[in-house]
Amino acid sequence: MGSIPFVGEMITLSLMALALGMDAFSVGLGMGMIPLRLRRIAIIGFTVGMFHIIMPFSGMVLGRFLSNQLGSFTTMGGGALLIILGVQMFRSSFKKDDEPALSPIGFGLIVFALSVSLDSFSVGLSLGMFGVRTVMTLLLFGIASMVLTWIGLLLGRKVQGLLGTYSEMLGGSILCGFGLQLIFG
């Protein structure tokens, strides 16, 4: 009898993890259209996974103290960051050099990982108020987002090979569209 609440909580948290990871998948699909090596893809996925652990944990810790208004602020901030990344990718598609304006290396990687994990902060805020199993939640969120980021980046890489010079433009458009959806959706 005692395992039924645990199973229900696992199913709910797994679905939440997949939903949050779909953001990373969608953005990874756009970002994957930049030429990336497999090692870079692995690092990006790992970094996004780590941010999907850090951000909801921060939200859980602060969830008892902050108001619900912060949740909409983080979604707007995440959308704005995605639009900035998308515009920079789109602009760099018109340049003749092969290097994107903001690549997922160093600061660009931090901005990318932060932009796709901000919504998990607001989810962490609400989960912190309900007292869910913290370690299980964070592991599910981190693993789902890491794997879905890898899938998105690898699919984007395949599409990039098919689209050639238009792939970065398409990737930037996808990021902008997803950012607008976060802000206005």
TrEMBL record:
The keyword Transmembrane helix applies. Keywords: Cell membrane, Ion transport, Manganese, Membrane, Transmembrane, Transmembrane helix, Transport. One of its GO terms (molecular function) is manganese ion transmembrane transporter activity. It holds the Pfam family Mntp. The chain crosses the membrane at residues 6-29, 41-63, 69-90, 102-123, 135-156, 163-184. The keyword Electron transport does not apply. GO terms for cellular component: plasma membrane. It is found in: Cell membrane. It is a multi-pass membrane protein. Coiled coil: none annotated. InterPro entries: Mntp/YtaF (IPR003810), Put_MntP (IPR022929). Probably functions as a manganese efflux pump. Belongs to the MntP (TC 9.B.29) family. This is Putative manganese efflux pump MntP. The lineage of its organism: Bacteria, Bacillati, Bacillota, Bacilli, Bacillales.
